[in-house]
Amino acid sequence: MQTAFSLAQLADPKTADAEKILRTCVHCGFCTATCPTYVLLGDERDSPRGRIYMMKDMFEGGKPASEEVVPHVDRCLTCLSCMSTCPSGVHYMHLVDQARVHIEKTYKRPFMERALRSLLAFLLPKPRLFRVALVGAWFARPFKNLVPPGLLKGRARAMLSLAPKTIPSPSSMDRIGIFPANENLREDGRPRKRVAMLAGCAQRVLAPQINESTIRLLNRHGVDVVIAQGAGCCGALTHHMGREDAAHASAKANIDAWIAEMDGEGLDAIVINASGCGTTVKDYGHMFRLDPEMVEKAKTVSGLTRDITEVMLDLGLKLDEEGAVDGDKPTDLTVAYHSACSMQHGQKLKTQPKKLLQEAGFTVREPMDSHLCCGSAGTYNLLQPVVH
After folding, report:
1. Is 154 inside any structural domain?
2. Which residues contact 162 (CB under 8 A, 6 or more apart)?
3. Which domain holds residue 94?
4. Do 140 and 184 belong to one domain?
5. Can you list the alpha helix ranges (DSSP code H) found in 13-154?
6. pLDDT, tens digit, for every residue of 223-240?
7. Total-model pTM
């Protein structure tokens, strides 16, 4: 794609990065076939190619974001299916992230929309506050049909509909500290590995059993698991809302916490069990590329980050003589597995989860068009209820 940036514009490293990505695009249109919003809506502006043209025009002209551009960028799920499809290797993720930062800085949304986005950015990364908010939503949920359908463009009713019917109790394992490997599985008194696990934010409130299961599984395979002091939200939620400062603050806290563990007793890996978080943490090196104080530490953290499936394949599932995992009964169940977009497109982990399920005794099936997004996409199901 031909660009027309001035030399003065290209002196800005962020603009130079955007220009390199834009020039990679040959506007072939392969991405439109695998873009969920284009497949659903049929509007070129809701395809990666259409958005790239709009972002190019916005960046080249040095223009503030407009009402014509913002809705189409907002409707992007950031599923990254286009990146798996693109024959030219266009790094759409970095381009749309930059566009969202530009929108956040230059476009004034309606007051109620600004308030909602600010509320989500404030609550979701903070587990205790998020839990309190869920309790409030639980009380309000039975009255969701009394909420005017047009309030916040349907978002108010959608949020109440998505509120869980039951709120899990806080986990006893939701704490800072070390969860040691089972003694009988240590090698010469030492763990097979020592890893830090990202406890996360929203997931630990909505589904605390995921972190519990991750810790137990690793402990049963001889791994010490550390929940580091100071680590929290990965920053993805605010990052995808264009709130660069908030996202970088969350990421910096994690980097500092994990570097401290590396400098202490050491780490063999940083384990992530939420693929959206994994995609973001693995991108910390790029996120801090222009920060001379953080860039090397960020690259170190990104290089050490592994999805739980990568770690388990490296360790190898412990199976007994009957083919059971850790004493659990072997299964002959058939399961459907739909890979998260951030897993298959963001991290390019397509076979690892299926292989682990098969090793555990499951017969794995995939749904038709499994490359297409489920529609959740972080806060997307709250901010885009009609498309979702």
Report:
1. yes
2. 381, 382
3. 7-106
4. no
5. 13-24, 36-41, 48-60, 70-74, 81-85, 92-106, 111-123, 127-140
6. 999 999 999 999 999 999
7. 0.92
